[in-house]
Amino acid sequence: MAKARTHFRCRSCGATAPKWVGQCPGCSEWSTLEEEGESSLSALSAAVLPPSRKPQPIAEVDPTEFTPRSTGVEELDRVLGGGLVPGSVTLLGGEPGIGKSTLLLQVAAEVAAAGRKVLYVSGEESPQQIRLRAERLGALHPDLFLAAEVILPQVVGAIDTVEPDLVVIDSIQTLVHPDLSSAPGSVAQVRDCSHRLVTEAKSRGCAVVMVGHVTKEGGLAGPRILEHAVDTVLSFEGDRHHALRFLRVVKHRFGSTLELGLFEMGERGLRGVPDPSELFLADRRRGIPGSIVVPVIEGNRPLLVELQVLTALSSLPSPRRSVTGLESNRLAVLLAVLEQRVGIPCSSADVYALVVGGVRVAEPGTDLALGLATVSSLVGATLPPDLVACGEVGLGGELRQVPHTARRLTEAARLGFKRAVVPFSAPAPPEGIELIRVGTLTDAVARLGLGEPRSDRAMRVVR
Ligand code: TYD
Ligand code: MG
User: Fold this and answer.
1) Residue 128: which residues within 8 A CB-CB, separation 6 or more?
2) Tens of pLDDT along 144-166?
């Protein structure tokens, strides 16, 4: 018998190579190639190909085929543009322990409570463990079925038996196709199992949601292969030490990818957060130098978050710079601008900057607020508590407007803020908020009366 030929496939981008090499020829990642037998892949793909359809005039295509159905979990429906589309396949990615299983069990329970059958397939936890969790979440419904399966044909068998409207696969990396020699979680397994599930979803009209674990480097195992195969890719994110969780859309064939869902993890599972700004500002203390509120846009949602900067005279030859929830590069650039353009020395200060509440903001709209908070801390003067700031700072110290300024200001006005520092070009403000229009960071510092150091301690840093 002829020896089966093998080749090597990249875990990240799916490129193949005849020989093992350290660096993938496709995506240049290191150590991502793994051996793959010349499996029964062609036979398998023939078996899972959907039945062919005749071409039809575009106007005759039935658009109602893709009407989303509410999942009963409001924040998920918001992200999906109404709910899950029957026959669609969704991939939910996220780090271990972030709450993917919890979210999907809650979704499963809501769908079952609405009288639709759900099959929850878990290759990670036993039915007993899932039941215990379901009890805690109030998710014991007669229409919610559990299957602790990892073998693909048995999963398909369970779908045959239950005939569900929704199938949850937790996780795609635990499934194995017995015809393939590679290990669970390998590119070949993940790709073939997900292809098969896509075919099942399309042919039966049931929605499938698969959990995909994110690898250490931050990508799903075989990410590109999976992203092509599915209709929607969601990412569940957050800081494990905080209760807040973000649900983002990475890809969505049925709608916008701009929506953001927000949840809070509590004793009894995940709870939607319809008014996040209020949550972020709930514990804010007034009168602290270095604190300012900044309106950011996350997905499509304006959020008000508190930014804090603490500066201290450094005892190190190269002072410490630390950021939480911000990009360290932005802080470095701002400190250089403060020093060179605004004339505020900060090269001998340790600088700690953070966004309160476990939020991560990477947008340039926070520059102005970060600059003002830094100066506020350096000189030991507080900023007015009813003030927000938004704008991008250029390398010349000039201010630029950022997208959706009007919406950011409207959110600030809604939460009772009275003043906003903005670039000259900012649009007219909503009612209740007064604009302080400035051209440069230097102007902003002067208009807020931050020019003069106020305490002896700060004097040592700002000379
Ligand atoms: P889980 O959904 O198992 O995460 P994933 O599937 O993404 O790995 O969530 C695990 C964490 O969530 C765990 O640390 C416990 C916490 N948790 C709560 O805080 N409250 C709850 O009601 C539940 C079910 C979990
Ligand atoms: Mg899990």
Assistant:
1) none
2) 999 999 999 999 999 999 999 99
CATH 3.30.1490.20 at 68-274, yes or no? no
Fold (topology level) of 279-462: Ribosomal Protein S5; domain 2 (3.30.230)
**Nearest alpha carbon, ligand 1 atom 25:** 269
Q: Is the dihedral of CA 330, 333, 338, 342 positive or negative?
A: negative
Measured between alpha carbons, how far is 161 from 94 in angstroms, rounded to an integer? Answer: 30
113 by Cβ neighbours in 10 Å (0-12 / 13-18 / 19+) ranks as middle
Q: For ligand 1, say whether the CB of 243 is within 6 Å of any of its atoms.
A: no
Q: Looking at ligand 1, which residue's alpha carbon is closest to its atom 17?
A: 269
Indicate whether residue 96 lines ligand 1 (CB < 6 A).
yes
Task: Map 84-115 to HEC letters.
Answer: ECCCCEEEEEECCCCCHHHHHHHHHHHHHHCC
Whose Cα sits closest to atom 12 in ligand 1? 99
Could you report the per-residue pLDDT of 47-106, keeping only the tens digit for each?
A: 445 556 788 888 887 777 678 999 999 999 999 999 999 999 999 998 888 999 999 999
Residue nearest to atom 8 of ligand 1 (CA): 97
Q: Which ligand is nearest to the CA of 102?
A: 1
Q: The pTM is what? A: 0.79
Residue 299 per-residue DSSP state = T
What does the pLDDT look like over 409-445, one tens digit per residue? Answer: 999 998 899 999 999 999 999 999 999 999 999 999 9
Ligand 1: nearest atom to the Cα of 133: 24
Cα separation, 333 vs 310, in Å, equals: 17
Kind and range of the H or E run holding 159: helix 152-162
Distance 238 CA to ligand 1 centre (A): 12
Domain definitions of the chain by residue range: 1-36, 68-274, 279-462
Q: In the 8-state DSSP scheme, what is residue 135? A: H
Name residues with Cβ closer than 5 Å to ligand 2, which is an ion: 101
